[in-house]
Amino acid sequence: MNKIPPDSILNPRAISSLAATVAVLLQAHFSPAIALSIHGPGVKPGEFRITTFAAGLNYPLGMARLSDGSLLVATSDGTSYWNSNGKLLRLVDADQDGFADGPGTVLYSGLTGGLTSLRIGGNLVFVTGQGSGRPITILRLGVAPASPLTLVGQIHINYPAGGWLHPHSGLAVRPTPGRSQSHDLFFQLGSQANFAATTSTASISSPTIPGASGTLLGDSIYKLTLIDSGNSVSATNLTRVASGLRNPAGFAFHPVTGDLYFEDNGIDGLVDANEPLSADELNVIPAADIGSAPVRFFGFPANYTAYRTGTVVGGQGVQPLVAFQPQPDRFTGEESEGPNDIAFAPPAFPDGLNNGIFVGFHGKFNLGGTDNEENALVFVDLATTNYFHFTSPRQPDVGHLDGLLTTADSLFIADLTTGGNLDNGSGLGMIYQIKSLVLPSVRVKPVGKNIELSWSYGTLQEAGSVSGQWNNVTNVSSPYSVEAGSQQKFFRTRN
């Protein structure tokens, strides 16, 4: 199969008369029919290749990319998601056709199942499940991507008696600013109740990670710095990053600014639990304010945006970047409820879809397919904060699009179990790959007698005609100035 992606091409000779000729070459790709379909303003399905990257998985949730481009996936082997054994599975797609080459190899096992998040920082792998008895496990990468992982240690989150409605489940990792061989681990401790400020406390402890100790307040995001000596890991500087949050389970750092984006789960309805009191949110903390005093307060429980009406109640605390409402009409439109994971759009997605965040919504807890009217995948444009459903809820054979991972040109989506039921959904997990077939366009601006070319992603190539021969333009970066003369020349970008 020819996998050469289409390109954006422009001719400076035409540009010299202030008119650009842009051609897009589309190459057809074929794959078996799959359940997932995409749509939305400006979305052209033909500009993407959608494949079932892997099927028949046991509750996949948590994905990270290894150094060779293969995927490390957290799975939970057992009939029930909650009563299972956790494993980390490596999936390889050597020929880049969008389909994993086989069932994968297990790089680590022996974890308590019900895994919810997986992140890589440096040579360390961080994985956790949701709630009591599911510690944050730290593993070390082997000498090669296919090498088994080794255990470094575990950080236990200790809960008081009486239960905790929104325990820890999400992770994020970044290099510690200004410190080598060190990473900051972020995790949440949500609210103990649906609609009340949490007054109880939890704690962290570890017999194998020195310094991993301290008291945790609810309704919060925490940061813990981990220092890797190569042979062992120690912890320091447990810091409360944010408060007034009900369940901020999905995190992502902006790849350029380092700002921390995260979702928060709205308050369940007080009369009908399926009709929320408050809207789910997308929030942000600027990089310079992460971990600074005073702790940023986001309003829960008394301050929120009412579901459907959009009324701002209370008004105290940091207001959300987005409060999610049904689309396109708040009262009759498609719903998206229960955000679980977020991921920045691939930079090589087409223009209009490469400057934003994807948010995966779990929807109805144990339902899937046409019975789950809340499990949309939403795209948020960060330039405008407008958002739309990239995939609709109620798609047949789609359960919970809870796990997201982006690479340079692809969005990977983990469906926890296509049937929706976490008690008997073993073997029904899916991972989809949505790959861009069209690189973002090359933009053009006359500058004096020259033409300035700029592009957001890819390698600039040039040719004397549209049909080629295409050659890389070496040692250049965006923006790039081209003399506008009589010689015909075409430019494009390529992966």
Give the topology:
Elements: E1 8-10, H1 12-15, E2 22-24, E3 48-57, E4 63-65, E5 71-77, E6 85-91, E7 105-112, E8 115-121, E9 124-129, E10 136-140, E11 150-158, E12 171-175, E13 182-189, E14 201-205, E15 214-217, E16 220-228, E17 233-243, E18 251-253, E19 260-264, E20 281-285, E21 296-297, E22 304-305, E23 312-313, E24 322-323, E25 339-344, E26 356-361, E27 377-381, E28 387-391, E29 401-406, E30 410-415, E31 429-436, E32 443-447, E33 450-454, E34 459-463, E35 471-472, E36 480-483, E37 490-494
Parallel strand pairs: 17-21
Antiparallel strand pairs: 1-2, 3-31, 4-5, 5-6, 6-7, 8-9, 9-10, 10-11, 11-14, 12-13, 13-16, 14-15, 16-17, 18-19, 19-20, 20-24, 22-23, 25-26, 26-27, 27-28, 29-30, 30-31, 32-33, 33-36, 34-35, 34-37
CATH-defined architecture of the largest domain: 6 Propeller
Total domain count: 2
CATH superfamily of the largest domain: TolB, C-terminal domain
C-alpha geometry: globular
**Uncertain runs:** 1-32
* Major sheet size, sense and barrel closure: 6 strands, antiparallel
At the first level of CATH, the class of the largest domain is: Mainly Beta
Distance between the termini: 17 Å
User: Order of strands side by side in the largest beta sheet?
Assistant: 8-9-10-11-14-15
Overall description:
With 495 residues, the protein is mostly beta strands. It folds into two domains: 8-26 and 443-494, no CATH class; 51-436, 6 Propeller (Neuraminidase), CATH 2.120.10. It is built from one helix and 37 strands. It has one helix spanning 12-15, and strands at residues 8-10, 22-24, 48-57, 63-65, 71-77, 85-91, 105-112, 115-121, 124-129, 136-140, 150-158, 171-175, 182-189, 201-205, 214-217, 220-228, 233-243, 251-253, 260-264, 281-285, 296-297, 304-305, 312-313, 322-323, 339-344, 356-361, 377-381, 387-391, 401-406, 410-415, 429-436, 443-447, 450-454, 459-463, 471-472, 480-483, 490-494. The strands form ten sheets. It has a six-stranded antiparallel beta sheet, with no helix packed on it. Strand 22 and strand 23 form a beta hairpin. The longest helix is centred in the first third of the chain and has 4 residues, at 12-15. It is globular, with a radius of gyration of 23 Å. It starts with 7 loop residues before the first strand and ends with a strand. Residues 1-32 have low confidence and may be disordered.
